[in-house]
């Protein structure tokens, strides 16, 4: 579904990303992890068509991305700034659908998406009446109601507490299993990348390059306790950590 070919972007004399190449198949949940400031957000903006790359290309469904694709949605880290405080939760979720679908379908899609994220009873509240975790659920519901072919998530759970983060991670896995939406999630959290991903793409320090593309050999159904305690999870987490820290991976004897 998504193909990046030697993608690079330079700000003045600073190279943020350098010749990044990878693909994401339809229905995958791929995670990108890298050190702070390595260019992860620049990468997402280029994929979303918000930032023309200096060189290289982004292909979605085999066609070059020039401008924001119609079938793409983004969930940002800062939920408090991505929701309109003067609109109700229902209206926030419906907002991107205005002018795209009729009023009845817009309403039905929003109600269904809110039910998916456990907020069916909050439709008529305003964002400031909700907790941070609930606001991020609204942001996710808005993206789901849009029904994108590709959903980009830019460190979507970084601004919530640990318990809420676990709940939102499990919510994302459940939605992915139910809808099969292709997702590309950027995070700085190694554990989160392994827990959520079908694959983990490990980036270098800026300018970002792909250090490794690691398949996650864990069952699709995951649990915050048993999955994280499993030998496979611990080994893969350690491999990602070593790559990020530049520590050689031990060779089996």
UniProtKB/TrEMBL annotation:
<dbReference type="GO" id="GO:0005524">
    <property type="term" value="F:ATP binding"/>
</dbReference>
<dbReference type="Pfam" id="PF00005">
    <property type="entry name" value="ABC_tran"/>
</dbReference>
<dbReference type="InterPro" id="IPR017871">
    <property type="entry name" value="ABC_transporter-like_CS"/>
</dbReference>
<dbReference type="InterPro" id="IPR027417">
    <property type="entry name" value="P-loop_NTPase"/>
</dbReference>
<dbReference type="GO" id="GO:0016887">
    <property type="term" value="F:ATP hydrolysis activity"/>
</dbReference>
<feature type="domain" description="ABC transporter">
    <location>
        <begin position="2"/>
        <end position="230"/>
    </location>
</feature>
<dbReference type="InterPro" id="IPR003593">
    <property type="entry name" value="AAA+_ATPase"/>
</dbReference>
<dbReference type="InterPro" id="IPR050166">
    <property type="entry name" value="ABC_transporter_ATP-bind"/>
</dbReference>
<keyword id="KW-0067">ATP-binding</keyword>
<dbReference type="InterPro" id="IPR003439">
    <property type="entry name" value="ABC_transporter-like_ATP-bd"/>
</dbReference>
<keyword id="KW-0813">Transport</keyword>
<protein>
    <submittedName>
        <fullName>NitT/TauT family transport system ATP-binding protein</fullName>
    </submittedName>
</protein>
<keyword id="KW-0547">Nucleotide-binding</keyword>
């Amino acid at each position: 579904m998504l193909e990046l070919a030697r993608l690079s972007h330079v700000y003045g004399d600073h190279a943020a990303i350098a010749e990044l190449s990878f693909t994401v198949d339809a229905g995958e949940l791929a995670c990108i992890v890298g050190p702070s400031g390595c260019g992860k957000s620049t990468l997402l903006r280029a994929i979303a068509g918000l930032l023309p790359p200096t060189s290289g290309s982004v292909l979605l469904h085999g066609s070059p991305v020039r401008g924001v694709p119609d079938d793409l949605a983004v969930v940002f880290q800062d939920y408090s700034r991505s929701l309109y405080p003067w609109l109700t939760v229902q209206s926030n979720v419906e907002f991107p659908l205005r002018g795209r679908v009729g009023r009845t379908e817009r309403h039905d899609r929003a109600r269904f998406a809110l039910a998916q994220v456990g907020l069916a009873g909050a439709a008529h509240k305003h964002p400031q009446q909700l907790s941070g975790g609930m606001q991020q659920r609204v942001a996710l519901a808005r993206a789901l109601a849009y029904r994108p072919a590709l959903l980009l998530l830019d460190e979507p759970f970084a601004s919530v507490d640990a318990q809420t983060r676990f709940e939102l991670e499990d919510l994302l896995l459940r939605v992915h299993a139910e809808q099969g939406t292709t997702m590309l999630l950027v995070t700085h959290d190694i554990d989160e990348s392994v827990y959520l991903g079908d694959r983990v793409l490990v980036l270098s320090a800026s300018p970002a390059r792909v250090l490794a593309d690691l398949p996650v050999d864990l069952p699709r159904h995951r649990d915050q306790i048993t999955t994280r305690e499993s030998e496979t999870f611990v080994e893969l987490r350690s491999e990602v950590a070593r790559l990020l820290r530049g520590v050689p991976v031990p060779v089996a004897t």
